[in-house]
Amino acid sequence: MAVHRGPVRDHATGPRFFIGLMSGTSADGIDAALVHFDETAGMPHGALVAGRTYAWAADLRERLVGIGQGGRVDSLDEVGTLDVRLGEAFAEAALALLAEVGVDADAITAIGSHGQTLRHRPAGAAFDGQHPFTMQLGDGNVIAERTGIATVADFRRRDVAAGGQGAPLVPAFHAAVLHDGGEDRAALNLGGIGNLTLLPAAGVVRGFDTGPANALMDAWCQRHFAQAFDHDGKLAARGTVDAGLLERLLDEPWFALPPPRSTGREQFHLDWVDARLRGGEGAEDVQATLLELTAVTVSQALRREQPDTRRVLACGGGVRNGALMARIAQLLPGVEMVSTAAFGLDPDYVEAMAFAWLARQTLAGAPGNLPAVTGARGPRVLGTVYPA
């Protein structure tokens, strides 16, 4: 991906630089964003200086996807090793970004690292129903040690401990940068999992996961077409939606849950799809049906939860899937679908920017969650700080 360049000013003169690191449900790479905050210049919510995506090592990504889809971890030794390997990969991504844009590590106030989710079992999804948890790997100690930069990580577990879902966390950032008092808006993130942030002109900001977005489409595409993803939805466009399969997919009880709700590969993976196949379906037809599943679940959720929405601002990798964006727009007549790029936010790096912003919140002692989104008992300062 191209690097996006912006003004870089001396850290001592006022602006504060942060790096946000994000790897989502698809585990297709580490998004690294260099963000600069300057209260005096009217940029308290940050401006992207540079962004880049770094691929995971192939063997590491294969293992992460396998575990994320419900695969067993071999041992505690494997968990510990993965934690360190992921920390090293996140550190390398941060250092590579700085080297590319010519910024010294000592100019960075902190790194905010989401980590890679190994398992997400929030309230309502825990195995025993009593001990919800979420686990992201990518040791913050390793990141801080390798980069020499203070690191904030492990953002989600405090919210879960407070009775919340621990996700999504990006709606707080969406509210800070995309809210408009003149219209009801929604921010739509089309990552591995889709999630909506509801931004009413007046009233409480809410947000929740809508279900699978790219994760299932990508996994099916890789299995049947030996491609990492369906470029612009062209494979799906060659197929026909299987109405029976779509009905069986939509019959999943999770879709009927009210917000707050969150999910991941533990819920939506290829075994889940396979269990609903009848046999003989064409690969392109299933690809088309999975695209339709994403479009339908997004549009139904938005109409149910904020029917007066006038504009949807989309980000995440799914924005590059023209067929998906067009289908969501068809299912939402009267609603303008635009990329966040139209509002100055590169859709590829919104989530990474959000974790830079969340790190800044943590260092300021300010809450990072929205209880109306996650269901937590109240606002909480999120994350653990690992000093430089």
TrEMBL record:
One of its GO terms (biological process) is 1,6-anhydro-N-acetyl-beta-muramic acid catabolic process. ATP binds at G24, T25, S26, A27, D28, G29, I30, D31. Pathway: Amino-sugar metabolism; 1,6-anhydro-N-acetylmuramate degradation; Cell wall biogenesis; peptidoglycan recycling. Keywords: ATP-binding, Carbohydrate metabolism, Kinase, Nucleotide-binding, Transferase. GO terms for molecular function: ATP binding; kinase activity; phosphotransferase activity, alcohol group as acceptor. CDD domains: ASKHA_NBD_ANMK. It is an enzyme of class 2 (transferase). Transmembrane segments: none annotated. Its EC number is 2.7.1.170. Belongs to the anhydro-N-acetylmuramic acid kinase family. The gene is anmK. Pfam families: AnmK. This is Anhydro-N-acetylmuramic acid kinase. It catalyses: 1,6-anhydro-N-acetyl-beta-muramate + ATP + H2O = N-acetyl-D-muramate 6-phosphate + ADP + H(+).
